[in-house]
Amino acid sequence: MKEIKSDRVFEKKIRIYDIPFMEELNEFYQKHQKEYLNVNDFLTTLIRTGLDVAKIADKNRLDYAGKFASISDKLTELNDCVKNTSYSNRLNMKEIYCKLMILQKVIMRIYNMALANNERLPLNNELVKATFYDDLPAELQEIEDEITQSFEDRILKEKDKENK
Q1: Is the model's pLDDT at 7 over the cut of 70?
Q2: The pLDDT of residue 4 is above 60
Q3: In whole angstroms, how large is the CA radius of gyration of the chain?
Q4: Cα-based distances in Å from 82 to 85, 86, 96, 101
Q5: CB–CB of 147/164 below 8 Å?
Q6: Where are the beta strands (DSSP E) in the chain?
Q7: Residue 135 gets which letter from DSSP?
Q8: What is d(CA 33, CA 69) in angstroms, rounded to the nearest whole number?
Q9: Pick the residue with more confidence: 133 or 18?
Q10: Are the C-beta atoms of 4 and 10 separated by less than 8 Å?
Q11: Number of domains in the chain
């Protein structure tokens, strides 16, 4: 399109080949004819209004592009944070698990040594060091198995709820 010069009257002819659009335009003009001096005033007003809308759309497009970029950056930060938290949680869980296993072994030693002492069995350091007293007694193993199964059942129920 040629540059529009503002020092003279700008005259432009428009060809519209879309017949339904032309009918709509004519119908709208007939309905609002009293509001305009002539067809030129009507068309100029429509063009101005369209230009104003186009400018707003242009500005909104730029604003939205900036907002989308900002949201994308925030999502990247959030994703990194989740990854770091997940890694940190795994390290914490590993440490907790290790300490729990050690604690369980100590408790089992004390428990088994107390049972041996009650039965008047001799206790010696060699058996303790050889982990003779570290095993979980059968009745406690059954309880642990029940608790583990109950925990696994809860997790499965929660997953089912999440998937529904």
Answers
A1: no
A2: no
A3: 41
A4: 5, 6, 20, 28
A5: no
A6: none
A7: S
A8: 46
A9: 18
A10: yes
A11: 1
Give the orientation angle of helix 39-118 with respect to helix 19-32, to 10 degrees: 110
Residue 64 lies inside a defined structural domain of this protein? yes
Place of tokens 């129920």: 157
- Inter-CA distances, 160 with 2, 86, 149, 152, Å: 66, 23, 16, 12
Q: Is residue 157 included in any domain, yes or no? A: no
State residue 87's pLDDT score.
87
Position 59: which residue type?
A: K
Please give the C-alpha separations between residue 144 and each of 33, 70, 85, 111, 154, in angstroms, as whole numbers. 88, 50, 30, 15, 15
The predicted pLDDT at position 34 comes to 92
In a domain, 56, yes or no: yes
Amino acid, res. 25: L
Cα 59 to Cα 47: distance, rounded to the nearest angstrom: 18
Residues 60, 70 contacting (CB under 8 angstroms): no
pTM across the whole model: 0.44
Average pLDDT over the chain, rounded to an integer: 84
How far is C-alpha 112 from the geometric centre of its chain's CA atoms?
50
Domain limits for position 51: 36-138
Residue 154 in domain: no
